[in-house]
Design brief:
Helix content is 41%, strand content 18%. An eight-stranded mixed sheet has the order 4-3-2-5-1-6-7-8, sandwiched between helices. A six-stranded mixed sheet has the order 12-13-17-14-15-16, sandwiched between helices. The chain has a three-stranded antiparallel sheet with strand order 9-10-11. The longest helix is centred in the N-terminal third of the chain and has 20 residues. It is globular, with a radius of gyration of 21 Å.
Length: 425
């Protein structure tokens, strides 16, 4: 297979849906001699903040001359960006070769009715690629949940918990405790667990799961993070022995995400040579595509993949860091999200709204989305199904000093970001 054929095979792989287990990906990785167990893995889960924390940790380690693989999802530009080594995405050639190699084994497993999903195949490619590179570390971001996520096949790891909130309730559970239980399934025996400051319900469950696994539980309080300044260019803050830290990622929550990363890095300093100044450099260099990402200053255009109530509340705070006259909001949402509360929250930010549809089977029909907004808003609303035309409309509506914000789904931002960057060329 060439690269395009490999991507098409992965994205079009349909398998019979059964109970979620790790048996099938384990069977595949067994054929490749369990590459995941040849790696020092930092395993990151949570509802929001996984990509940012992964980027903070990865960049800090790279600045200290360690070789680091990073696996994240979903991608924004192309599928290869999910698999990185030392900030370089896997090449088309390497991706195609590995996919071809894995495909042979997958098709043999198919004959035995051991069906491996597209995401499990992608995760396996990442593990094999990282192991063959003999990396110092692999930073693995959970796709969804944790307990039965494809990434959760290693014997040992450093489990890291970002902010846990209600999302994917139909799969993970409808309370914070149930969701924390699913995510807490990544904790292995005798681990050192690191966590963002959680709501008591989630924290209690994580602590009890850590105790069951004879693992230590480490977190911090929000008031331990002293934010010196926070604006549209990032944050400056102090955390424990670290002074005048800077993030290029926008929003107070990014200072807290960075503090979580620093806890992990401080733990690693016991066994690895990590210079504090280089850690600070890595924290500042960290980027996260599609998360409060400023694509243009004039006109001011920001895109964000926020897709649940918790992250929309984060956007509400982050937008206040920018200076603008009116806010033109481009928006759409998947149908399985908390429409009522998300729409009420996001409507309050906007002066004018442009709605469109997401290129995904779980999209909300644009007529329904328009109807839902009109029930709660008297603001000017434009419903435009074609995403390119919707982007044009936001640009037309924006006057001097106005801000354009696109958000609602990472699947939406994939397309919108590409369209905007083409227009800015």
């Amino acid at each position: 297979m060439d690269y395009k054929e490999a991507v098409a095979w992965l994205e079009n792989r349909n398998i019979p849906l059964g109970e979620f287990t790790l048996d099938n990906i384990r069977a595949l990785l067994e054929i490749f001699n369990r590459p995941q167990d040849k790696l020092k893995i930092i395993h990151i889960t949570g509802t929001n903040g996984k990509g940012s924390v992964a980027s903070f940790i990865t960049n800090a380690l790279i600045e200290n001359n360690y070789s680091v693989g990073k696996f994240t999802s979903p991608y924004i530009t192309n599928i290869r960006e999910e698999i990185e080594v030392n900030r370089e995405v896997i090449s088309e050639d390497d991706f195609a070769k590995l996919a071809s190699e894995v495909r042979k084994e997958v098709e043999e497993l198919d004959k035995k009715e051991i069906f491996v999903s597209g995401f499990e195949i992608l995760t396996s490619i990442a593990y094999i690629y990282f192991a063959r590179k003999s990396l110092d570390f692999a930073v693995m971001e959970v796709g969804m949940g944790g307990r039965v996520d494809a990434t959760n096949v290693m014997e040992k790891s450093i489990p890291v918990f970002c902010h846990i909130a209600l999302d994917h309730a139909n799969i993970l559970g409808d309370t914070l405790e149930k969701i924390a239980k699913e995510k807490g399934g990544i904790i292995k025996e005798n681990s050192h667990v690191f966590s963002y400051p959680q709501a008591e319900e989630a924290k209690g469950k994580l602590k009890s799961l850590a105790k069951e696994k004879s693992s230590s539980f480490n977190d911090f309080d929000f008031d331990e993070v002293e934010i010196i300044s926070s604006n549209e260019f990032g944050n400056k803050f102090n955390f424990k022995d670290y002074k005048d830290l800077e993030t290029s990622l926008v929003g107070d929550h990014q200072a807290y995400n960075a503090a979580l990363a620093l806890m992990v890095l401080e733990y690693l300093r016991k066994d690895y040579k990590l210079d504090k100044e280089k850690i600070k450099e890595g924290i500042k260099k960290a980027k996260n595509i599609g998360r409060i990402e400023c694509l243009s200053r004039d006109p001011l255009i920001v895109v964000d993949g926020s897709h649940n109530l918790d992250s929309i509340e984060g956007i509400e705070k982050s937008v206040k860091k920018f200076t603008y006259n009116k806010l033109i909001l481009g928006f759409s949402l998947l149908k399985d999200k908390d429409h009522k509360h998300i729409l009420e929250k996001i409507e309050g930010l906007a002066d004018k709204l442009v709605l469109t549809e997401i290129d995904n089977d779980r999209r909300t029909d644009i007529d329904l989305l328009e109807k839902e907004f009109k029930e709660i808003s008297s603001k000017e609303i434009f419903a435009i199904k074609d995403r390119r035309e919707a982007v044009e409309k936001t640009l037309d509506l924006a006057g001097e000093g106005d801000m354009i914000l696109w958000c609602g789904s990472l699947y939406l931002i994939k397309d919108i970001r590409k369209i905007i960057l083409e227009k800015l060329k």
